[in-house]
Amino acid sequence: MHIYSPEQKIEHPLYSLKNLEVYLKRDDMIHPFISGNKWRKLKYNLERAKRENKSIIVTFGGAWSNHLLATACAGATYQYKTISFVRGEDISNPVLDMCKLFGMELRFISREEYKDKNLLFENLENKTECFFIDEGGASLEATYGCKELIDELTNKYDHIFCAAGTGTTVAGISQGIADSELKTQLHVVPVLKNGGFILDEIAKYNAPTDQITLHLDYHFGGYAKVKPELIDFIKNYIQATGVMIEPTYTGKAMYALHDLIQKDVFAVGSKILFVNTGGLTGLLGQLGKFD
Ligand SMILES: *Cc1c(COP(=O)(O)O)cnc(C)c1O
C-alpha cells in the first residue's frame, strides 16, 4: 500500500530567529487510526502473520494504547480477527470503544497477569491460529518498517528528532540512517522516566547507537504525565503552526526540540526533521488538561 507522509517545512518565529530550517515528517497523515509509527511497526508483522497463515492477531496494551487501536483497524482492513489483552480493570473509553467498533475482542487482565505475556498467549484456546504481537508492536519486524522512513526522505537533514516509548521506532530510524550512510544525528526523547534503557533496546535489534543523542530530561514526571509548562507549550505550538500534537509523545519531543533550539544547541543554518509519530486519538482522554 502506498502511504502519504510528506516532509513539511514549518514556519515559526523561533526558527527564523535562530536561522534554522525545521521540517515535519507527517507520519500522522498516514492513517487516522493506524497512525504514524504504528502503521510502520505493523507492516512487516502483518506480512509475517500472512506468511504463517495466521488468522488471529493477539496483542497487548494499556487502556489508551495507540497500538491497540491501530491493530484493531488493521485487523478489520486486512481480514484478521483481533484479540487484545488490556492492562487493568474493565473500563470503557473512546479508544477502547473504537477498538471494539473495529471488531477487536478486549480481555481485561490484572497488572500482575499482564506481566507474563507469553503465558497469556500460550494459554489461548486456538493458539495455532494466533499471531503474537508485543505491546506497542515492538519487534524486529517493526524496526524494518520504521527504517523505511529514511528511504522516503527527499531532503538531507543534520538532525532528526523522534519520541521514544519502547525505542523500536528509533531503532529502525537509526538503522536507516546507517544503511544510507547519512551523517544525520538522531535525537531521541524518551517519554518515560529513566529512559536510558532505550539504548539497550536499540542495541538489542543490532541497530547502531553512535549517531544517537538521548535527551532524558523531557519526560515531565513519567509516561502520560504532564506539567503546566508542557500543556502551555503544546497549546502555543498548535496555535502557531496549525499542526496538532499531543501530550504523551509528540508534545514532549517537540518541547525538547524547542528547548534545545532556545539553548543554541544547533549550528546556524541546520536542517532539522521532527518525526510526527501521530497518536492523536490519545488526545481524546487528555483534552480536559487543556482547560
Ligand atoms: C507508540 C508511539 C511512540 C513510541 O514508539 P516506540 O516505537 O514504542 O518507541 C511515539 N509516538 C507516538 C505518537 C506513539 O503512538
UniProtKB/TrEMBL annotation:
SUPFAM superfamilies: Tryptophan synthase beta subunit-like PLP-dependent enzymes
Matches recorded under Pfam families: PALP
Swiss-Prot/TrEMBL keywords: Pyridoxal phosphate
Organism name: Sphingobacterium bovistauri
Family: Belongs to the ACC deaminase/D-cysteine desulfhydrase family.
Domain Tryptophan synthase beta chain-like PALP: 13-278
UniProt entry tagged with the keyword Protein transport: no
Stated name of the protein: Pyridoxal-phosphate dependent enzyme
Cofactor: pyridoxal 5'-phosphate
